[in-house]
Task: inverse folding
């Protein structure tokens, strides 16, 4: 989130950010620093449907046309995803389709992979399975621990997410089927 906001502040991301919705209160300080409205929506398994209804109503009230997930770590319902087709951008901390879901760096370490990656994709009803917008990788070795993978991966995540958001804003992405074409 901080990386995207800094890129926006510096003019690299040419868009309006009227509001930040989050299920984490820590983001409120970032929103205040950049003078962006902040709205907290608690999400729990028992109240997920209610939270999504609140989020959708607030997104509509603010006229939001693209949603960027940054450390949201929740699975969106098919109804939510259907309201924003090819307009919800997620970053996943693995080189998809490998290591879907939670704790991919732990899975990569346990598997002994030599490359880790990050993937930015459009969200669909299927977890971490949407059309891929951008990916990047970093070489690792047997000497690296999970914490090393996480640190390297976070840098990759920032890069692929900012590229995906910029390309979406610039209307450089064409979705067809389960793929994307990104125009130069």
Result:
């Amino acid at each position: 989130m901080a990386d995207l906001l800094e890129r926006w502040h510096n003019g690299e991301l040419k868009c309006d950010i009227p509001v930040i919705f989050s299920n984490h209160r820590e983001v409120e300080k970032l929103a205040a620093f950049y003078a962006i409205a902040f709205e907290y929506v608690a999400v729990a398994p028992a109240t997920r449907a209610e939270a999504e209804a609140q989020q959708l109503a607030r997104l509509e009230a603010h006229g939001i046309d693209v949603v960027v997930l940054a450390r949201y770590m929740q699975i969106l319902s098919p109804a939510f995803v259907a309201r924003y087709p090819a307009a919800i951008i997620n970053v996943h901390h693995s080189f998809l389709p490998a290591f879907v879901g939670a704790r991919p760096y732990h899975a990569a370490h346990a598997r002994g992979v030599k490359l880790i990656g990050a993937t930015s994709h459009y969200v669909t009803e299927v977890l971490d399975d949407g059309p891929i917008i951008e990916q990047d990788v970093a070489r690792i070795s047997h000497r690296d621990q999970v914490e090393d993978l996480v640190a390297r991966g976070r840098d990759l995540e920032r890069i692929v997410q900012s590229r995906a958001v910029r390309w979406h804003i610039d209307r450089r992405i064409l979705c067809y089927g389960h793929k994307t074409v990104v125009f130069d």
Observations:
- The mean pLDDT is 94.
- The first strand starts at residue 19 and ends at 22.
